[in-house]
Amino acid sequence: MTNCVEETGEAAVLARITRALHTVLGDCAPDPGAVTMETRFVEDLDLESIDLVVLTGELRAAYGDRVDFPGYFASLDLSEIIGLTVGHLVRHVVESLR
Amino acid sequence: MTSLRAGQVRLNVERLGEPGTAGRPPVVLVHGMGPDSLADYYFTIAAGIAAAGHGVVMYDQRGHGRSERPATGYRLEDFSADLRNLLDALGIHRPAVLVGNSFGGAVAVDFAVRHPHRVSRILLIESAPPVGDWPQRMSGFLSHCAETLCDAQATDRMEQEHGRFVARLARRTRPLLDETTLIEDIAAGRIPGEDGLHSLAVPVLALYGADSALAASAPALERLLPDCRTVIVPGQGHTLLVDAPRTVGALLLGWLREDLSRPERATARARTP
Fold first, then answer.
1. What residue spans define the domains of chain B?
2. Residue A5 binned pLDDT confidence (cut-offs 50, 70, 90)
3. How far apart are CA A76 and CA A72, in angstroms?
4. Which residues, given as ranges, of chain B have pLDDT below 70?
5. Domain B2-129+190-264 is in which class?
6. Phi and psi (nearest 5°) for B233?
7. What is the DSSP string of chain B?
8. Domain that holds residue A89
9. Is A36 on the interface with B (CB under 8 A)?
10. Which CATH number fits the domain that encloses residue A88?
11. Alpha-carbon distance B136 to nearest alpha carbon in chain A (angstroms)
12. Nearest-neighbour CA in chain B from A58: distance (Å)
């Protein structure tokens, strides 16, 4: 399978996750420019755990079975999920698509 | 993730795995009360169950997560009717494995007593059997939570002791506690009671954390249910599912494999007085 660079590079995945955050949080969504690789989903964006599930649902629609989100989250303990950054998720997606 | 109408309410549903893969029964995960949601399973045991070849269904119960929060309708039987409507809406008519965490266990048991042909076995995680004064104890606990959450000093203490994440989750249960009839409805609900539990022929595995107050109910549960085994997990408390997901997942999958290889066991044991 060939993926074009724009789709699978870190910047493109960051942009995709930022768009998904917008869908999940609606009116409460952060300004797109405010989301960086260091932004924490729970601590900085105030996402509840159920919002994270919705977010991964959005991303599964974008990336299909090429990225295993439930398996990834199951490998983290609660403190790791609380501290999860956008960058962690971006890198997981990029590595899965490689 | 989809949202679907189950009877009168709209429920948020998440599915993993292929429904009906390799003939293995679907596994339906029922979460607990208050701050709980399907995320408790999504982040813990759901992926492992799907990887073992089961279709997995998770949903947010009414008033929880991203499901609808009606102003009224929070008796135990309302929650178990939601489960029936959900399975109907998903076209799941073959017997399912139910997993119930805490309050979700009471929902699973109530559903199984009302619809025994739709349940093949039940895993209870840190769940008090819905018998005796369960409605009053549960309602009293929720009432206590509502009072605590109104008290800023108490929530500050909660944040110091358990962290910001836990305190924030707790504060977010306020609309459910303050703006619905949950507390009255739980007290007024019709529970299966001891007769209901006696009638439940399906195999039940009940897990408790050794440090949880609920662990003391393990012997009573084994007496009340015709086919029940309990396991006490050392070093764990009430939040066993989120604190020890690998242990819970391994116990569930081991038990499913064991029972699937001996399908006659449930029937034989259920007939023994």
1. 2-129+190-264
2. very low
3. 7
4. 1, 20-22, 259-273
5. alpha beta
6. -95, 115
7. -EEEEETTEEEEEEEES-TTGGGPPPEEEE--STT--THHHHTTTHHHHHHTT--EEEEPPTTSTTS---SS--SHHHHHHHHHHHHHHHT--S-EEEEEETHHHHHHHHHHHH-GGGEEEEEEES---S-TTHHHHHHHHHHHHHHHHH-HHHHHHHHHHH-HHHHHHHHTTHHHHHSSSHHHHHHHPPP-HHHHHHT--S-EEEEEETTSGGGGGHHHHHHHSSSEEEEEETT--TTHHHHSHHHHHHHHHHHHHHHHT-THHHHHHHH--
8. 5-97
9. no
10. 1.10.1200.10
11. 29
12. 8
Please tell me whether the interface predicted TM-score (ipTM) of this complex is above 0.90: no
Amino acid present at B85 = N
Q: How many residues does chain B have?
A: 273
Q: Which two tokens stand for residue B44?
A: 């813990």
Spell out which residues of chain B touch residue A78, defining contact as CB-CB under 8 Å.
43, 242-243
> Of B271 and A67, which is predicted with more confidence?
A67
Q: Does the pLDDT at position A56 exceed 80?
A: yes
Q: Provide the number of structural domains found in chain A.
A: 1
